[in-house]
Amino acid sequence: MNKQILLEALGKYQRWFVENKTQAMLEHRECEELAIQARSFTREVLLNMSEDQLYDYIAPLWAMAMWGNKHYQIDNIIEANGMDLLRKQFANLVYGTSPIEKRWDEFRSKVKGIGPAIMSELLCKTYPDLFLLWNKKTYNGFSALEVANLPRFEARLNGHKYSRLCEIGKQIISEIKCSENMIVTDMLTLNSFIWQELQEETKESAATSKQKDKELLPTSTKEATFIHNDIRDKVAEIGRCLGFRAEVEKRVADGAVVDAVWEVTIGNMGRVIYVFEVQTAGSIDSLILNLMKSKNNKAVQGIVAVTDQKQIERIKREIAALSIKDEVRFWDYEEVLKIHESLQFVNESINNLGLVPKGL
């Protein structure tokens, strides 16, 4: 961490806070009110919450800002997981007694459609002295402070890495307190500081760029599962942003349960379905078999293999003699993450215009 950059940014933030005190205090109060609301969901409340209470719990989160119709997205989360699982996993993530590394990994492995941004925001608002809010803006801020070995894509953010980032956040808070700053006192106010002062794009070195190219290559079975599930969920979310009905782990034909589908009804044509299979590691046979079987459903108009560039070439070789060789489309999953990130920015910007009333 570059302490000089931190102190310079902190000085700018203090001046901005003084010069814009009314706005700054309003934002601080709104932030604290949202945190108080999150803390009102005790372990007992989470274990017994209704669907409406789940909406009240996660709809106000900054991580949900990309969704204009939050009810639609939360309904999809409920459909994909079931309320029993969601109650248990939210209660364990936030109030469990085992180490955060274990609770984090269990949540990520069992819950569909909810990623590190929502998870870390709930943890940060509940325990602002212990847990860091992690998203693209936090990544930008830590990069500006020259913190090394940051996970560019949240697909790689397992419990161990999240715990390490929280420790770095605590170190930053300690440095800020040494400067006798009274504004940034915990990781929730650290988040506001990062958003305000540390969002300038930094030039990447060739080594950093090369590291990012390799970042989505899993190094363990658990990591491969996390990356697979994150890509799967983001493919579905991209579909919803584009107006499709999107689902994960959907049965589309006998023996074919695919990772994600986009579906739309077009006039007299009926249903049109696009099928996506995600491959992060291991044998590609099941991916090919699922894509072949899915074509038995006449509504399936497109089949897409989502993987990295190296495996794309492997799949092309494997299907060269098969009937689907000219039908399979390929999508590099780093592009999936970049597209999702761009759509998130676009949707958040449009939603901030307030054209759609809150609560819809």
From TrEMBL:
Protein name per its UniProtKB record: Uncharacterized protein
Native organism: Tannerella forsythia (Bacteroides forsythus)
Origin superkingdom: Bacteria
